[in-house]
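#structure-requests
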Amino acid sequence: MSTPPRALRLDPQDNVAVVIEALAPGDEVVLEPARVVAREAIGFGHKIALAPIPAGTPVRKYGEVIGIATADIAAGAHVHVHNVVSARLPGVQAAGR
């Protein structure tokens, strides 16, 4: 019997997934081919990095660039306003888009 997913990748191009079950540090998320371990607590509805995202590179969700990493983001890390700037808000430069 397979285990239900703990996160959803909304598009094959995405480098983040949406957490559908709150994660504690050390919890594993398997979304083939990605397999990551949560580095910190990540709440329901928030994003987890499926692979390393270097500072200055696009964060992809829905197959679209939703933001730019403001710091290096490790695989399994919480992806949110503390390490991403929006590529969708007026006046924000969408580098890499």
